[in-house]
Design goal:
The structure is a single chain. A hairpin with a 5-residue loop joins strand 10 and strand 11. With about 425 residues, this protein is of the alpha+beta class. It starts with a helix and ends with a strand. The protein folds into three domains: about 140 residues, Chitinase A, domain 3 (Roll), CATH 3.10.50; about 120 residues, Chitinase A, domain 3, CATH 3.10.50.40; about 130 residues, Roll (Chitinase A, domain 3), CATH 3.10.50. The relative contact order is 0.08. The longest helix has about 35 residues. Helix content is about 25%, strand content about 30%. Strands 1, 2, 3, 4, 5, 6 and 7 form a seven-stranded antiparallel beta sheet that branches. Strands 8, 9, 10, 11, 12, 13 and 14 form a seven-stranded antiparallel beta sheet that branches. Strands 15, 16, 17, 18, 19 and 20 form a six-stranded antiparallel beta sheet that branches.
Length: about 425
């Protein structure tokens, strides 16, 4: 799992860009637009092209902090694609030979603005990000394509062999479209176009690996006739009796064919499905059900809000809280005075916090992480209760805050036991500094 997470980080970071301004002393601007300096050069080695795959060692730094490295792990394999922005990592790699090692510099502005679509905080403007790169090997595009063709041929042959075996089994039946029906139970009505269905399903590969499963999680409701998952799945929904089940196989030509689906479903992958039809409803029945569900949700919300109000009053009374609540319902209880000006909207602050439910059970604490949390007041990075309380505090101040859920996490369940929806909080808050 750590390897997967690391690769996900690299995929984002590999797309960062530099600008066209040569602001980096000691770095040369290459033909591709990348700003680089070389540690080792092997001019006899091959150079990668767009479409080639490369194996590289890579380390990324922001200032003096290492953000990512392949050191001590497997090298990274990457397909060189056309650069989205001038001066990114693929641009740098296209300027390297096998055996070369070099450092690339880009501006952090580019990652925030172009890749993450975020505004750049002032303290990060113009700050460099460095990549140490070593090009270990190249696999040409032509070899990659031949390998992919061979892999697809193997997948197609494996599917064909699997389907032929199922089709030959006399216990199975095959629809005109090619669905293979292995088992069917129930004799109720089946869905008509425009009906609403409530189903559970288990989707597996032909090898038995689970891809999706709603059983015991949450049923799926939809209007029959709208394509869901794939053509074959939608067709099968019209064959399952209410209260019954259907076990069937979708050939890839009725599924995701030769393309697969986003790395989750391989090309030429037949899908093995077990579907249960829980309920079939016409328009009126469906709308009545939704109205009942909505009424139940509102009743439960009202119950939880009443319970929250009772918990707040009991906590205030039991703990002898005498401060008046703010307009938003916060009780801000001073513990230690700070020095200097109070924090204000737009300040970049560093804080320690500990969140408790009103039973006194710890939910989360920044002290456990060993360092304070930094953020900008007003950008929505923290719950409103913390931001509002901070604007009554100077550096060094400590307070306790008792807050209703609408200034904390509201209807969101943070923890089923510790912090369910509509839970008030007690927060211990320390303003370490204003940067």
């Amino acid at each position: 799992m750590n390897r997967i997470l690391n690769l996900a980080i690299v995929v984002v970071l590999l797309l960062t860009v530099s600008c066209n301004r040569s602001v980096f002393s000691g770095y040369d601007k290459t033909e591709s637009g990348a700003y680089m300096k070389f540690y080792e050069r092997n001019t006899e080695g091959d150079m990668p092209r767009i479409g080639d795959a490369v194996t590289i060692e890579i380390t990324q730094y922001f200032d003096d902090t290492m953000l990512f490295t392949t050191a001590g792990d497997k090298p990274l394999q990457l397909e060189i694609r056309k650069s989205d922005f001038i001066g990114d990592v693929p641009d740098a790699l296209r300027m390297m030979h096998v055996g070369d090692s070099a450092r690339l510099v880009v501006l952090s502005d580019s990652m925030f603005v172009n890749m993450m679509q975020m505004e750049v905080a002032e303290q990060y403007l113009g700050r460099p990000i460095y990549y140490d790169l070593k090009l270990l090997s190249i696999k040409p595009y032509e070899v990659l394509q031949a390998e992919r063709r061979a892999m697809l041929d193997d997948m197609r042959m494996a599917e064909n062999e699997y389907l032929v075996g199922l089709q030959a089994d006399p216990k199975n039946s095959v629809t005109e479209s090619g669905l293979i029906i292995m088992e069917k139970t129930g004799k109720g009505k089946v869905a008509k176009l425009g009906d609403y269905v409530d189903i559970d399903f288990l989707m597996c590969t032909m090898g038995g690996d689970t891809l999706m499963n709603s059983f015991g999680v949450e049923p799926v409701e939809m209007q029959y006739g709208e394509e869901f998952i794939c053509k074959g799945f939608t067709e099968a929904m019209g064959m399952v009796p209410e209260g019954g089940t259907l076990r069937f196989v979708i050939p890839s030509e009725l599924g995701f064919d030769s393309t697969g689906y986003h790395g989750l479903i391989n090309p030429y992958a037949p899908l093995v499905i077990k579907m249960r039809m829980n309920e079939i409803m016409d328009q009126a029945a469906y709308e009545a059900k939704q109205a009942r569900i909505e009424a139940e949700k509102e009743a439960e919300k009202e119950r939880l809000l009443q319970l929250e109000s009772q918990l707040m009053k009991q906590y205030i009374n039991d703990n002898g809280v005498t401060v008046e609540p703010t307009e938003t319902g916060l009780y801000i209880i001073p513990i230690e005075e700070g020095e200097g000006e109070m924090a204000k909207w737009g300040d970049n602050v560093s804080v320690h916090y500990a969140l408790y439910n009103l039973k006194g059970e710890l939910v989360e604490s920044s002290y456990d992480y060993g360092e304070p949390m930094s953020f900008v007041i007003g950008q929505g990075e923290m719950i409103p209760a913390i931001e509002d309380a901070l604007m009554t505090m100077a550096p060094g101040a400590k307070v306790k805050v008792v807050t209703p859920s609408d200034q904390a996490f509201g209807e969101i369940e943070i923890d089923q036991d510790l912090l369910p929806p509509y839970s008030p909080l007690m927060i211990e808050l320390e303003l370490v500094s204003i940067e």
